[in-house]
Amino acid sequence: MSDLSVATEELPPVAPALKVSSTDVAVEMVDVNKWYGEFHVLRDINLKVMRGERIVICGPSGSGKSTLIRCINRLEEHQKGKIVVDGKELTNDLRKIDEVRREVGMVFQHFNLFPHLTILENCTLAPINVRKMPKREAEDIAMHYLNRVKIPEQANKYPGQLSGGQQQRVAIARSLCMNPRVMLFDEPTSALDPEMIKEVLDVMVGLALEGMTMICVTHEMGFARQVANRVIFMDGGQIIEQNDPVSFFTNPQHERTKLFLSQILH
Amino acid sequence: MNAPSQTFVSDVIIPAQAPPRNSVGINGWMRKNLFSTPLNSIMTVILVVFIVWAVTPFIRFTLIDATWSGADRQVCLQSSGACWAYVKAYLPQFIYGRYPIGERWRVDLVFWILVIGMVPMLIPRAPFKRLNAIFLLGIFPVAAFILLTGGHYQFAGRLIPNSIMPPSPLRFAIEFGIVSAVILFFVGLFAWLSGRPIAGSGNVVGTILAGIAAVLALCSIDFGLVPVETANWGGLLVTLVVAITGMIASLPLGILLALGRRSEMPVVRLASTIFIEVWRGVPLITVLFMASVMLPLFLPDGVTFDKLLRALIGVALFNAAYMAETIRGGLQAIPRGQYEGAKALGLGYWQMMRMIILPQSLRIVIPGIVGSFISLFKDTTLVIIIGLYDFLGQIQASANDAKWASPVTGLTGYIFAAMVFWAFCFSMSRYAAFTERRLDRGRR
Ligand SMILES: Nc1ncnc2c1ncn2[C@@H]1O[C@H](COP(=O)(O)OP(=O)(O)O)[C@@H](O)[C@H]1O
Ligand SMILES: [Mg+2]
């Protein structure tokens, strides 16, 4: 791990201080199964995320982490089981899918900013066209979030002119402009140079402190220790183990978890 | 020599000097590019000799030995070079064909409206691009259509029998309304069945239907213009009408077909693929021939279809198929992450395509699109096969005119045609190169 993540590891956990709803379910997956052709990629996934909860998912490459969170906003379709997001069940009903996607923000490993639009246009596009917000209002909101991720001065540049860390922060701001109720992160820092990881993690910690419901696929164990309520370990398309971060790191139960942690922490 | 303890080395700033004589200017350029090596020098000399050998006779023929004025074939017969007097005498016919002389101002007007619409569109810095595009793609075609044909069309449908209500604008309006309602009903039904937002699809289709209604209404108004049958159109007018209609129609059709071919709905994908492959598999001449000879056989009696219109439809669909493949190439170049980024933000399919995917992919395929436009422009000459007299056809026809016939008349005409076609195609190509460079700069 890089020095920067070690630095975060030494910070006290913020999780206990934050309130998690005990009744309000943000995402619920019941016996979810998915196949790519013959390949059984998700096996009997059961996961309940309460509002305000911050989940970190880790596991070896190819274990189905991305597939799992991409099912939550239907970038991937599941073939068996039930997924309910914000009270709406994901089926083939395109209207439901659109509704869910409006309420769920997603940050990708490779940012996926729109290269032909400026940073500001990237941020205002969805609020204007999906939420039907007036342009001025959308721009004000976009500037507010660009301020929060600390790059308001880049608003009129194009994504290609920014560093990786800056691009990822824009991607986070772009999602926040839609005022989502749940945020999904798919390895948001793994494509970044070490010196840029911290600036992105700082933004994510800030978001967690505000009580955002977050589901993060990441191997930044410092981040997991600091903000997660629950760490989930996946392997071979299954949830192998889940626990609060302290127990997860100090007292892993399953052999595979132990092996994984020994590889990643040293 | 300086003393060893001295750390200060220089007390004068060396002024900037001019580069050596032989590395700059024309001399330097020639040295570097034409005569850098012995082989390069030999090639340069051979090429220069070849160019002189090939171009001199051409210049002699078209300029030095050419005849510039005269009243009939006598001057051409005496000329050993091009007979420009003939081109001068026929120029109006080359441009307008048999369009009535008294009405030619309408063609001129259309041309100038086009220029006024095009120039600001082509200049990247000119403002109001959106309005400009609406003018060029929405208003101009309708205005051009009315001006060129004369408008005042009496539309009639076949939905309501004559015994119930004689043909009239009102009857047509009612018929149009009925058809629209049926279409909207099925769109709504389809949206409802497939779980899409009904208002969305309904709005789009409703707007299109309203637009068609407005255009039809405009075309039926009597503006007091004398009708000019398309059979009398000719020359550059026909060339430009076929080419521009082909371009304007093939681009959106091509986009739809390209999207269709990549659609997740098997029926749409299959239909688009079949359409594209059928049109790409036949030569344009066959298409035009079928449109003019075969199509009337399939139409019910009494339904006539303007010959020019048939050619236009043939050319547009033919080029749409090619355009679709060009654009599909651009769509394939867009990384999956762009689709996912757009979907994750909640953009619908059409929003995603219109705002994220197409702007990026069209940019990539500008050279391909312009290539298609250039071949389309040249292919318009094929309409002569169905008896339309385009620019080249008009020139060909006039070369046999007894008044001007001479050994050089035909050649002069063809050289003139080549020069005009070349001017159009070359400007398109240069403009495309300019656009490419500009967009490249904007990107990274
Ligand atoms: N579109 C796809 N088609 C077929 N197999 C896929 C596809 N996407 C992912 N997979 C496979 O599914 C497995 C899980 O992938 P993924 O969810 O990306 O894993 P992770 O994010 O944990 O690395 C991998 O073995 C991968 O090769
Ligand atoms: Mg992954």
Could you please describe the fold and organization of this structure?
The complex is a heterodimer of chains A (266) and B (444). By secondary structure, chain A is an alpha/beta fold. Chain A is built from ten helices and ten strands. Chain A has helices at residues 3-9, 65-72, 94-103, 119-129, 135-148, 164-176, 194-209, 221-227, 245-250, 255-264; strands at residues 25-36, 39-50, 54-58, 80-85, 88-89, 104-107, 182-186, 213-217, 230-235, 238-243. In chain A, a hairpin with a 2-residue loop joins β1 (25-36) and β2 (39-50). The N and C termini of chain A lie close together (7 Å). By secondary structure, chain B is mainly alpha-helical. Chain B has a domain at 86-124 and 230-443: MetI-like (MetI-like fold), CATH 1.10.3720. Chain B is 70% helix and 0% strand. Chain B is built from 17 helices and no strands. Chain B has helices at residues 25-33, 38-64, 73-78, 84-96, 104-122, 129-149, 169-194, 198-220, 235-261, 266-280, 284-298, 307-332, 336-344, 349-364, 366-379, 391-399, 409-443. In chain B, α9 (235-261) packs antiparallel against α10 (266-280), α9 packs across α15 and α9 (235-261) packs antiparallel against α16 (391-399). The model of chain B has no long low-confidence stretch (mean pLDDT 87). The A-B interface holds A 73, 75, 92-96, 98, 101-102, 104-106, 108, 110-116, 125-126, 129-130, 158, 160-161, 174-175, 178 and B 194-197, 337-338, 340-348, 351, 355-356, 359-360, 363, 442-444. Chain A: Belongs to the ABC transporter superfamily. Chain A: Residues 27-261 form the ABC transporter domain. Chain A: It holds the Pfam family ABC_tran. Chain A: Keywords: ATP-binding, Nucleotide-binding, Transport.
